[in-house]
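tool_call: predict_structure(chain=1)
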Amino acid sequence: MTQGDFTIQPVGQGLFYAGKIGQAFNLVYDCGRGTHSTVGTDSDFALLISNYKRHELINDTIDMLVVSHFDSDHANGLFLLLSGKTIVKQLFIPYSGIGDYLILFSLLYITGATSRVEKISLVLEKTAVNDDESNSDDNSIGISLDLDSKYTEPDLIKKISIMPSSTVVSSQQQWLFKFYNMQKSKATISRIENEFDALLKINKCNTIQDLLKLKEGLHPTKKTKHYMKTLIREIYKNSLKRLGKDSINKSSLCLYHKPINSDKAVCFDYPSSFCNENSENVGAMLTGDINLSDDVRANEFLRFFKNELSETYFMFLPHHGSYLNWNDLLFNYLDKNTVFIVSAGKNNKYGHPSSTLISKLFKRGNLIGVATEQRLIKCLIN
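tool_result:
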């Protein structure tokens, strides 16, 4: 029987979920740390990633890397994770339009990882495809990207396939992965594309590669010695500045995963025991920063994951446990033995996780684990 050993790393106000399936399959979901954490430093975060790469990655290889979205507290560690010799066999991102691809391309180009990522899967919004599911390791559905040459390079395009949210992926028939990308406003994506085009024009560059090679300034009045590493953050900030509630956080690439044949799940923090009980449910549901507060959007999510939620043992509270992203409709689908998990900064200024939500979960009888800068959480599934 294959065992999965997963860790919610102690990054504080962010998320870095990494684990091993069997002896050699490495899974990473997000790698980021928020700037508003009260404990820990950037050097601590860098050391955490360095130790993970040194001690966990066999042959410097991540078999599956999933990016829920490119907000800083979920993605800023990718610069370090993908640097050096790190190989990624398959990378998954949510895809709603060219803006998503441009952010990914910039990340890979900056880290020099375009040649070390073997396959890229762009997961379409749920509403963009039908409800048919397929169980296959080949996720391409025959859609090709028609990109202007200024946005990419031919060798990278060859590695890309586009898959529906409804696709189920298995790892050697031992582990199941199911992805969900909730629809978001087209204004979000077009704004990102417009920001890239504006930067090309301002900096008199013909291609994204030329832009990323610059050593200074996003525009003539803004100089920085760390131009390349701040580019994505600046584009995100400028692109989403006036979107208000219609932000990128409304949609994250969610991932449900579980072993094909399983009988037990165990969860504990370190060093003290958090919980240790056998459960008929062994699935893990990762939700990024998805917003489920709207009943229409929540019901779409619930319809898609109806069967999986009933089997979920580890449920990650959306957006670090924010009550504004939660919906009580989920209680109709989740078992009372479900363990809810949060990754949040100690004493963060946002009030995450919500005391109102935590109180509801306690009253319901659920166990809750909070990973902070000082506490990691381990989840074992077999």
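agent: Residues 79 and 111 are 6 Å apart (CA to CA). Proceeding to next step.
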